[in-house]
Description:
Layout (H helix, E strand, L loop, with lengths): L1 E7 L3 H16 L4 E7 L3 H7 L4 E4 L7 H11 L3 E3 L9 H14 L1
Parallel strand pairs: 1-2, 1-3, 3-4
Helix pairs in contact: 1-4, 2-3
Amino acid sequence: MTKGMIICVSGMSSSMMAKKVTDYFKEQGKDIEIDAMTASMGDDEIRTGDEDIFLISPQTKMYLETFQNTGKEVGKPVVSIPFDAYIPVPMGVEKLAQLVEANI
Length: 104
């Protein structure tokens, strides 16, 4: 199973997006699961977590460079989510799923 983590400021909107994208992958028959967490724990999770990819929410861009540097240190991709892929409608969910697949 491939695992991804959305890192967000509070984790509420990212939890909804994580569930919708995970459900989308299941409907497509793909074994990819996305979860969400707050930015305060992001650096530690990138270093020690078992996720294959980390996705930085639009609200959390101020941490992007720090998280990307940590990702480079441990060999894990850290990707910025564009606004149009962070909308809980089918088009946004599909764009976020495509972003995940393009970077794993």
